[in-house]
Amino acid sequence: MGFLSAAILSVAALATAASVPNSKMKRQVSQLRSDYDFVIVGAGTSGLTVADRLSAAFPSKTVLVIEYGNIHFAPGVFDPPTNWMEGIPNPPPSWTFSSLPNPDMNNQTAFVMAGQVVGGSSATNGQFFDRGSRFDYDAWLDVGGLEFAAKSIKWDWNGILPYFKKSVTFTEPSQAVAQQYNYTWDVSAYGGTTPIYSSYATFQWGDQHILGEVWKEMGLNPQAECAGGDKEGICWVPASQHPLTGRRSHAALGHYADVLPRSNYDLLVQHQVVRVVYPNGPKHHGPPLVEVRSLADDHLFNVTVTGEVVISAGAFHTPTILQRSGIGPASFLASAGISLVVDLPGVGSNLQDHGGPPVTWNYTQPYIFDHLPDELANNATYKSEAIAAFDDTPSHGPYTIAMGNSAIYVSLPHMTPTWCTIVQRIRQIALTPGLAASYLPEDIRTSPSMVAGYIAQLLTLAQHFSNPAFPSLETPWATSVAPASAVSFLLHPLSRGTVRLNLASPLDQPILDYRSGSNPVDIDIQLAQVRFLRGVLDTPTMQGYGASEIAPGAAVAADDALLEEYVRSQSFLSFQHPCCTAAMMPRSRGGVVGVDLKVYGAEGLRVADMSVSPLLVGSHTSSTAYAIGEKAADIIIQAWS
Ligand SMILES: Cc1cc2nc3c(=O)[nH]c(=O)nc-3n(C[C@H](O)[C@H](O)[C@H](O)COP(=O)(O)OP(=O)(O)OC[C@H]3O[C@@H](n4cnc5c(N)ncnc54)[C@H](O)[C@@H]3O)c2cc1C
Ligand SMILES: *[C@@H]1O[C@H](CO)[C@@H](O)[C@H](O)[C@H]1NC(C)=O
Ligand SMILES: *[C@@H]1O[C@H](CO)[C@@H](O)[C@H](O)[C@H]1NC(C)=O
Ligand SMILES: *[C@@H]1O[C@H](CO)[C@@H](O)[C@H](O)[C@H]1NC(C)=O
Ligand SMILES: *[C@@H]1O[C@H](CO)[C@@H](O)[C@H](O)[C@H]1NC(C)=O
Ligand SMILES: *[C@@H]1O[C@H](CO)[C@@H](O)[C@H](O)[C@H]1NC(C)=O
């Protein structure tokens, strides 16, 4: 993109952001039309993508998006006057959850957030904008078995790549910036013009390159572009930010404010979708009614839909809406006193998220670089200069980096000589009668479809884990300021959790049971990952700085039992990437939606958000949520054209 067109786009983006609230936004039921062709539940990352595409494709059909949160165009938690090193003192609206204790992780609870705002989690996230590897999406097809192989709609890498490309506008860094940091990229991974921006910061911390050198010393190879399907090795990762303003780019701008006015596109804020209702029960023909609650006065009303309903409320809330609608595990719904509409044991089951422990160290040799993150906290002049630089056009300086722009992604065969044993153990769990089932959540353990689906997932993952190009560890980094840490992301957890309505208060937040570590192979893989990451300390670069390990430490690492205890007690249980709670898998394998994203056994109802991912991808999840929204929209547009 030329400088001039970027400048015009950015002015447009800021102007529309400033001019909200606008006439398209509704706050009262009285402002709504009598009925809508399409209702999208949740103005989040996927939901707003779908709403934008449908309202553009069908000017004579009406689209209503119903959102719990409010409109809030704050650039984000990582922009001035705060940044990621300074905590999150004033976040835009988010829900925060504490999971049930995890018995296999020393009873720790997972701390998780979810955006509760127009834009959803894209408006509150860390802006790290990677994609999974090709194998992550190929696995979505593999778990579908022969049934999905026979469908014309495919969600493998080739089937989703066009939507990744369409979903963002990538801007190349300037030559000067690229040379300064050695950024590499390949534009052939991109090509879209949607105003959701992917770009590189014009600033990196003074010590950013150190871990890059360390990874090379550990034998990892740089990948020139990691969004093109192949990402095993050392990666540069762009951020979801505007190339010129440095501000967060999110769904509420790119799929709402920037595409208005559009007379057929309405957004109702501060309303909770309670459930969908089929007035004639399971035999009902046509789309359901949508029952909505006003947060202002608790008033309940129904919205009439003539086309279809798309639920895009995110991995924690999509299953709550389905469960309140009588669509879910029959035994759970019976215990909740909710009449059964469709028995789908996968609703709110199959919960997965990234987690893992850190390896931490200090430096004993002088460690002096220009511009380390603590300068923002310790030097008021530097900080005010940094804020002025961020407000400059084009913006520059430390506030242009969100969570960082680099990470390693390492496969099991490149990480540990024991990879074969790990893969064998997964296969053995899958193939030993009753064993896989015994690791599933208790309330679905006896469901033949859930067990079949879990076995298919285990066999699919075992196969991919053997592939040296399939990353199973991620470690992001932006700076190695002391005490430094390399965090071990378990990219493909085998443990499965649940999201269930809180029966004491079903309209409130659901109960999250992460069940982290319940499949013991997750612990085996984490042991290998931590041992691999400790290799950081042995590299010439780290030795040169006298890097001194703080945790887990050589004594702990040398002892399996102690290291296991370290993993169980020191892991972060969520890196904020929940998924898979309304999985796209065959119904006979515990799936909730098919490849067309239609909810099995329910008419006029689809799901489009991170819930439909059957297996967690080896990536932060926002780019996948956008791509799901894009492909969902295309499927719906074809169905109604
Ligand atoms: C703190 C945090 C940091 C993250 N960091 C990164 C990162 O750096 N990089 C990355 O790629 N990903 C990151 N993620 C993950 C990523 O942002 C999400 O996976 C993705 O945005 C989810 O998209 P979604 O469409 O599934 O749901 P969301 O975008 O969360 O949208 C769901 C929407 O539904 C609304 N809603 C829920 N229930 C109801 C209801 N009953 N009625 C009406 N509306 C409802 C919500 O308010 C929300 O707006 C992060 C997430 C969080 C929370
Ligand atoms: C976890 O909590 C349970 C129930 O309170 C208790 O029985 C168990 O010993 C605890 N486990 C650990 C490791 O603390
Ligand atoms: C960039 O790469 C060159 C050539 O490999 C190297 O000399 C230089 O130190 C690198 N700079 C950074 C910041 O990594
Ligand atoms: C919505 O419609 C259903 C089915 O007709 C009905 O049972 C329910 O009471 C309605 N809800 C409201 C708030 O009117
Ligand atoms: C690490 O180094 C910092 C800065 O020198 C120091 O404050 C801290 O106590 C050290 N921590 C440990 C565990 O050695
Ligand atoms: C604080 O930052 C200013 C501006 O970058 C710089 O000139 C000054 O030397 C810094 N002060 C210290 C004590 O580092």
UniProtKB/TrEMBL annotation:
UniProt-listed GO biological process terms: secondary metabolite biosynthetic process
InterPro entries to which the protein is assigned, alphabetical: FAD/NAD-bd_sf, GMC_OxRdtase, GMC_OxRdtase_N, GMC_OxRtase_C
List of catalytic residues: H577, H620
All residue ranges annotated as the Glucose-methanol-choline oxidoreductase N-terminal domain in the record: 314-328
Keywords: FAD, Flavoprotein, Signal
Signal peptide: 1-17
Single GO term (MF): oxidoreductase activity, acting on CH-OH group of donors
Residues bound to FAD: T45, S46, V117, V273
Cofactor: FAD
Family statement: Belongs to the GMC oxidoreductase family.
Name the record gives this protein: GMC oxidoreductase
Organism for this UniProt entry: Parathielavia hyrcaniae
